[in-house]
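Input record (one chain):
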Amino acid sequence: MGILDDARVATRLPAQDLERARRFYSEKLDLEPIDERPGGLLYRCGGSDFALFQSAGASPGTFTQMGWEVDDIEAVTAELKRRGVVFEEVDLPGLRTVDGIADIEGNYPSKGATGERGGWFRDSEGNMIGVGQPVR
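The corresponding structure, as predicted from the sequence alone:
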């Protein structure tokens, strides 16, 4: 057994403007912090926590920093777009989005699935966030 096998994983996302980030997560994602401290906001989704922390550094936003697994990606994507969230459009060999959603074969994050349907957007701080639905 490894030293971290029973440890909980918690995502931390940098925010140059914590109040701007709070508004984005509230207005666009319908999330409210469960706790807040000077320089940080703590959120809980589906039994897991993630935190936004005040940072002078900025995220490059070039890779997925956090993602949600959802049951209906089309409904979630449509609602987020209605709220003003802008999804990335990607057209690369082996990865192409249509209306913000890509069909991905054998994507690892989908446990016990043959692939995933996924989409990505940036939060107000430039963090790349993903949503995905396993394909079974």
